[in-house]
Specification:
The protein is of the alpha/beta class. The protein has helices at 2-9, 14-26, 30-35, 71-77, 120-129, 151-162, 187-200, 220-229, 254-270, 288-296, 306-311, and strands spanning 47-48, 53-54, 58-60, 81-87, 100-103, 108-111, 135-140, 168-172, 207-211, 234-237, 241-242, 250-253, 278-282, 301-304. The strands form three sheets. The protein has an eight-stranded parallel beta barrel, surrounded by five helices. A four-stranded antiparallel beta sheet has the order 5-6-12-11. The protein has a two-stranded antiparallel ribbon with strand order 1-2. Bound molecules: flavin mononucleotide. Flavin mononucleotide (FMN) binds at residues 61-63, 66, 85-86, 100, 109, 111, 113, 115, 139, 172, 175, 210, 239-240, 252-253, 256, 282-285, 304-307.
Length: 323
């Protein structure tokens, strides 16, 4: 069934197709729930660490539902976690269109969206009423016009707004489409953000940092220790990659797979002595082999986005362990 729908959707501009789909999902209609039944909760195997519990190992990565408008339907599909966002404090429209492209042969997408978001107070209405079984992740980021100096205050305000609704929070400092954002991965800037955020936290909700695959992570051991010292519970590895030969923006899916895997494995190794430090892997995950490969390197939590676009809801089968 998704094959037929995809034939139609792929004749449209990728962002238009996405918006149409998400709009339908947001109504959580009976016909869609009948067409896409979702995976059987009885077959799910819970994944639990010191920091959080997912009802199964497969989460939806950030960016698919930026404003949290389709949580009930996404929960129905059977994700172990749904990460919404990136949520910005103020509403912003993002970059000029077109800003999303398909690279179909490689099962990849490229986007230069630049955090279009309706703003925290709009998103809050959706997060505070959500009561599904999938763990709710809330991914937060800076507004385009916020200076680097003002970032600590902005991230801490977002933590204050969302910590009561979140199963986990993600500080996004790695999108390639917001000028200077990746500079915040520098420990000097990051320390300032974490100091403010830690002053704000009161509920013990885990916070993860989302990193880029394009940095030199040869110092991953040091980075992990730095994060642990600053009361951070883990990483989301990774965001999209810059690939200039394809064009502007960040690339996801198969194009990203190798470079994301290198980063994920490096951090899985660096954190292997710290069982309370979680790695959530994202980047070109679209098969059981991908999951098994990461799992044997010590990974328990997995996310995808691009594979949902190319393969449809049947990709959720990866949530279930087999064989
Ligand atoms: C269209 C699109 C928009 C995205 N927007 C965000 C975002 O707002 N925040 C974020 O942290 N990651 C965003 N991502 C990155 C994904 O969360 C994920 O890290 C990346 O796509 C790798 O996973 P995948 O290969 O399974 O797609 C976006 C990805 C895509 C394809």
């Amino acid at each position: 069934m998704y094959g037929l729908l995809k034939n139609v959707l792929f004749t449209l501009d990728p962002e238009v197709a996405h918006d149409l789909t998400l709009h339908q999902f947001s109504k959580n209609p009976y016909y869609l729930r009948k067409l896409f039944k979702g995976i059987d909760p009885a077959k799910m195997i819970e994944v639990k660490t010191h920091n959080m519990t997912w009802r199964n190992r497969l989460g939806l990565a950030a960016g698919f539902d930026k404003n949290g408008i389709a949580l009930d339907f996404l929960n129905h599909l059977g994700f172990g976690a749904i990460e919404i966002g990136t949520v910005t404090l103020k509403e912003q429209i993002g970059n000029d269109r077109p800003r999303m492209w398909r690279h179909s042969k490689e099962l990849s997408l490229r986007n230069a969206l630049g955090f279009p978001c309706k703003g925290a107070s709009y998103v809050k209405k959706n997060t505070q009423t959500y009561n599904g079984e999938a763990t709710l992740g809330i991914n937060i980021g800076k507004n385009k016009d916020t200076s680097l100096n003002d970032c600590p205050g902005e991230y801490s305000q977002l933590v204050k707004i969302f910590e009561e609704d979140a199963g986990y929070l993600v500080i996004n400092i790695s999108s390639p489409n917001t000028k200077n954002l990746r500079k915040l991965q520098d420990q000097v800037f990051l320390k300032e953000i974490l100091d403010e955020v830690n002053k704000q936290r009161s509920l013990g909700i885990p916070i993860y940092i989302k990193i880029s695959p394009d940095e030199d992570w040869s110092d991953s051991d040091t980075f992990v220790r730095f994060l642990i010292d600053n009361n951070i519970q883990g990483l989301v590895c990774t965001n999209t990659t810059i690939c200039k030969k394809l064009g502007t923006g960040g690339v996801s899916g198969n194009y990203l797979k190798n470079i994301a895997r290198k980063t994920q494995k490096s951090f899985l190794k660096s954190s292997s002595d710290f069982p309370d430090f979680d790695i959530i892997a994202a980047g070109g995950i679209n098969s059981r082999e991908d999951i098994n490969d990461l799992n044997s390197a010590g990974c328990n939590f997995f996310q995808l986005y691009t594979a949902l676009v190319y393969k449809g809801p049947s990709i959720l089968d990866l949530a279930l362990k087999k064989g």
